[in-house]
From TrEMBL:
It holds the Pfam family Ribonuc_L-PSP. Belongs to the RutC family. GO terms for molecular function: hydrolase activity. This is Rid family detoxifying hydrolase. The keyword Transferase does not apply. Keywords: Hydrolase. Coiled coil: none annotated. It comes from the Bacteria.
Length: 124
């Protein structure tokens, strides 16, 4: 097994002892992404979600992947009442053949943001 650490300077650095992503045997595991600076600026949930997706996209690109290579996403939200807005932004990044996914409401997220997304991609 070969393990490669993935880093993109275009995405926020990890805020703890973890990597932005790790590649193992063609599978890319992207750590949960948040949009702290956008959240702190008072942005809408749609703007926050869009920045989370952009952060994830930068990391995927650093790994040699695109959104079309994503096979699974895990979305964690602070308020399920934002589900429709989150879904709309998410869907714009996966217009065809979206990956498998779960969306879970949680009591709290890192830095008190409203949404966090992790994903798994396969380098074809």
């Amino acid at each position: 097994m070969t393990k490669k650490i993935i880093f993109s300077p275009d995405a926020p650095a990890a805020i703890g002892p973890y990597s932005q992503a790790v590649e193992v045997n063609g599978m890319v595991f992207v750590s949960g992404q948040i949009a702290l600076s956008v959240f702190e600026s008072g942005a809408s949930i749609e703007e926050e979600m869009d920045q989370v997706m952009k952060n994830m996209g930068h990391i995927l690109k650093a790994a040699g992947c695109t959104y079309t290579d994503v096979v699974k996403c895990s979305i964690f939200v602070k308020d399920m009442d934002n589900f429709a807005k989150i879904n709309q932004v998410y869907g714009a990044h996966f217009p065809e053949n979206p990956p498998a996914r779960e969306t879970v409401e949680v009591a709290r997220l890192p830095k008190d943001v409203r949404v966090e997304i992790a994903c798994i991609a396969y380098k074809s």
